[in-house]
Amino acid sequence: MKLSSKALLALAISSITATAYAEPASQDFVPTTLAGTSAQSEAKGFIEDFSLGGTTRNWYSHESKYRGGTFSYKKHGQTLTDRNRTNWVQGTILNASSGFTQGTVGVKTEVAVYNALVLDRSKRDIKGGSNRTLADSNGDAVDQWSKLGLANVQFRVSNTTLTAGRQNFSSGIVDTIGNRALPSSFQGVSFNSEEFSNLSFQGGVFDRVSPRSEQSLSKFRSEYTSDAKVETDKVYTLGANYQPFKSLKTSFFGANVKDFWNQYYFGATHELGDSQQLALTTGFNYYKTVDEGKKLMGDIDNDTYSLSFGLTHQAHSLTFAYQAVNGNEYFDYLHETNGIYLANSLTSDFNGPNEKSFQVAYAINMAEYGVPGLKFNAYSARGWGIDGTHYTGNRGVVGKGYDGIQTQDGEKHQEYGVGASYAIQSGPLKATAIRATYVEHRGSEFQSDGSIKEFRLVTTVPFNIL
């Protein structure tokens, strides 16, 4: 089970609902021309544009399994169980970034130190550790730890930047995930080119991921593999973002995950109308995944898509989203990434074999009522028709691919969530964000996510030193 950064309640809603605009969305065609300015020509200098700052995040979560589900942990050699798990971590990022040097080719560096301080160190509470709290081999919390989260050098010509080292990267297939006390990052080489007014290109080659709650670098593995030891050390990705009309934004990306799969992504968002009267935002996301090379994840042939319609009237947004998986295996993506831009990726990703799902979401922005920064939202989602009985992709090898998925025959599940967030608008704590969510998920007997309730409270405070 994964709570993606787009699926934390507010972000899940905002990704598929219309944004308020003061004017009707323009349907004008946008011609492709060379960018009007060069970012490198405006470089201020390596030292002159140096900055030092970061964020500190207080991350609290309490989970309760029900309908017979339990968490387990070891104490004095015995395995004990109960239905609750609590994680409480303070994550701090200190980021030092130079400016670009002047000249035809600009050079800059970025270094960010990540630090985690565990505030709840009870072995019983953290249940032996997870991707929430780092624990040692005995299941005891590592009280405090640090690592280099970012360490890279960047080269820029005109509006094109090449980055080498440990870095953030964002696309529909490979994307930094930031829904814990600290985010993930990737090691490799990437580029971002914005030489045209409405067309940009991105690409990268990555060999390691720096996980959210680990100190070391790891090879890549899939999120839903039945064998966590199956890894790869090469991910290649390339794509483009194109805005043909002022109201329409599109994204095309492909990725080769060596010996796992080739994956292709297309996404589009269209805006229509005036939110002060009635605005419609339509979102479409599509993934095609096929096995590749040594097929370490088994045979894969999967088509998955989501389609959403968001209506906005002043402070109120109402969204309907449908999602479908066409394949006898999970729709899968890389672990420690947010490479799933599907509308119904919530606490559950609603990505079971042959699964169909539907979500209704409501959000209200209290800025319209004189309280800027305060938002509330709620959603309900249901998934049905999960059928893994036709899966043969592991070719009879136990632990390969998605072994065990064959027990899922007509499985279903449902999820409900409510949330509130507030961003401070001014003063010394400006942009501090406080977010509280409650989610309840209930699955049938063999549905992979089980039945669980979670309350989460997250406070993120940005700071600037220089």
UniProtKB/TrEMBL annotation:
Keyword Transport assigned: yes
Keyword presence, Signal: yes
Coiled coil: none
Matches recorded under Gene3D superfamilies: Porin
Signal peptide residue numbers: 1-22
InterPro entries associated with the record: OM_porin_bac, Porin_dom_sf
Transmembrane region(s): none
Keyword list, A-Z: Signal, Transport
Family as reported in the entry's similarity comment: Belongs to the outer membrane porin (Opr) (TC 1.B.25) family.
PANTHER family with a match to the protein in the record: CHITOPORIN (PTHR34596)
Name of the protein: OprD family porin
Lineage: Bacteria, Pseudomonadati, Pseudomonadota, Gammaproteobacteria, Pseudomonadales
